[in-house]
Amino acid sequence: MKLKHFTPELSAKVPMSVGIKAWIEVKKYRRGSSSPHFYHAQHNLILNKGLDYGLANWGNGILHPVESEIYRGYEMMFVYVAVGTGTANPSVTQTELQNELARTAANLGLGAGRTRQRLSDGVHRITFTRAFDYNQANGNLTEFGGSHSANSADGTHTRELFRDGGGNPIVIIKTSNERLAITYHFEVTLTPTVQTDQGSINLLDNNNNVVLTRLVRGLWIGSGSSPYGDYGGFIGDNGRADRIGHWLTSQASNMTYLNGAASDGGRYGGRLAYTNGTYYRDVEGERGPEASNQNIFAYGLAGSTDSQVSYKIRFVDGAGADNPIAKNKDYRLRLGLRMNVQRV
């Protein structure tokens, strides 16, 4: 990883790892009944299109048409659920259902619209229930997927066939005397959540000569709530994770998952544009010339306020002690973080 010390063209890209997966539960309810007479659960496939969509829309939001809640980032993939009658084997390169029959954003009181739950440090489950009424989606259903849009022309970000426990395709028959509820469980795993060695960065001068090297240690920060800091950073909730924050004081005692020490050295930069197919998104911040020299002890993924910290990187020596970057007041310093997202 490289960082240019005098000019802003090159940056350090310390990686933050994110794993995502989804699975569903299906229930059918006979007319007039609040208890399901049919239950089914299985995995779901997140398409490449879905990986791209969540990263391209990091921090963006959609007002849910029924719940009046703002869905952020990857949550937007599940505003609507679609069902269809296609039977083609799913592939990550697909962009829609093969033969869509209907889609809905309603839950009809058959489950919660969206719930957020932290299962353990860095592990979050977000649940969305969508339901088709008696006059919707009737027929022999074979496929399903999630989308941000009410328009079938926008396709889906996930797609899978309904399958039995052995992985064999099945048909779910829905009649006009039944309602059908599909609950998506979207699970996010953010790592690391303990202070972890993450290699080193080199600082270069204008001639690309290394002027110093720093080892770095980092972790996701999960303090706060509604949502928790690390998950809020992952989706870019309410201005989170849209710039780089600096610390001008030692953070040696503040490198734990639930430590919410606010950045004390300013916030800089923003998210860089996303390129489809890369499955990572960069955030960079440049600290320019200033009135006095500064020691930069740490930096991290910050938001619109100093307290919105969701990832932190500390500069250390080989023994793990503080080893800050001494920034000359006349120099520019650009630091960056890269969020990598993959299926798990």
Helices, strands, pairings?
Elements (H helix, E strand, L loop, with lengths): L1 E3 L7 E19 L7 E6 L4 H9 L4 E3 L6 E3 L7 E5 L15 E5 L10 E6 L2 E10 L6 E3 L1 E5 L12 E2 L10 E3 L3 E14 L4 E9 L5 E11 L8 H7 L7 E5 L19 E2 L1 E2 L8 E8 L6 E3 L1 E5 L6 E8 L8 E3 L5 E11 L1
Parallel strand pairs: 1-15, 2-25
Antiparallel strand pairs: 2-3, 2-14, 4-5, 6-7, 6-11, 8-9, 9-14, 10-13, 11-12, 15-16, 16-23, 17-18, 17-22, 19-20, 20-25, 21-24, 22-23
Provide the descriptors you would attach to this structure in a database record:
7-stranded mixed β-sheet; 45% strand; elongated; mainly beta; 8-stranded mixed β-sheet; 25 strands; 344 residues; disordered N terminus
Give a brief outline of the structure:
The chain has two helices and 25 strands. The strands form six sheets. Strands 2, 3, 8, 9, 14, 19, 20 and 25 form an eight-stranded mixed beta sheet that branches. The chain has a seven-stranded mixed beta sheet with strand order 1-15-16-23-22-17-18. Strands 7-6-11-12 form a four-stranded antiparallel beta sheet, with no helix packed on it.
